[in-house]
Amino acid sequence: MRIRLSALAAASVLSAGLAACAGHQTTPPLASVAEPDGQIFAALDIGFRAEAASDGAALRAAASLLDSSGAVPAEGEPDLMERWRDMAAGLGEELPPVRGRIAGPAYRNGIVGAGAAAVLRDSFHSGRAARVSLQARGAGTLRLSIRRNDGEAVCEALASTVPVSCQWVPVWSEPFTIEITNLTGGQIAYYLITN
Q1: Is 50 exposed, middle or buried (0-12, 13-18, 19+ CB in 10 A)?
Q2: Which residue intervals of 70-138 are DSSP H helices?
Q3: 98 in any annotated domain
Q4: How far is CA 148 from each of CA 45, 135, 178, 193, rounded to the nearest angstrom?
């Protein structure tokens, strides 16, 4: 049985992670944990900041938050929860045992160059709500575009430091094209979450 963090518990973990990483200010502020994918965005932000600062307590908090979200790495992406747990243990942190994971949202961590686009394909089931969320991890603007297999536009949104989501209910189970275009003059790192 999966136990989700309550909003209060998630906010506590988020606050602990932020306090631990307060000295590192080069990334934008965290997303609201109340957003549909906010807990995952928060875990990713806390984890990468903690990784850069070699902060074991914040790494442990990020791994726990990511685990409780049910998110798994997208195909070909590293398992950040395991990496951060290992790093935290290497820094002397005691870690609770890992629960078994079930299928849940998938996350990607990527970089797109100035004026370039990253193009991905992902399948979504008919009749079920589909959601793709994007957050830029630096200054600049990214365009998120979702297209059906036949090229028909489903959604387009602009992301900066505030995450954006595209949500729809596919009529058919089919692959969709997800395009992340950098609209600025420098490369931008991003988080992408698909359900």
Answers
A1: buried
A2: 80-90
A3: no
A4: 30, 22, 9, 18
Strand pairing of 153-159 and 117-124? unpaired
Q: Are 50 and 81 in contact (CB under 8 A)?
A: no
Provide the number of structural domains found in the chain. 2
Tokens representing residue 53 in the block:
């600062």
Give, for all 195 residues of the chain, the pLDDT tens digit.
Answer: 333 333 333 444 444 444 444 443 344 444 444 465 888 888 888 899 999 999 988 888 888 888 877 888 888 888 998 899 889 888 888 776 554 434 567 888 899 999 999 999 888 888 888 889 998 988 889 999 999 988 999 999 998 878 898 988 888 888 899 999 999 989 999 989 888
3-class DSSP assignment, residue 131: strand
Tokens of 126: 């008919």
Q: What does the alpha-carbon distance between residue 41 and residue 16 come to, in Å, rounded to a whole number?
A: 15
Q: Is residue 180 part of a domain?
A: yes
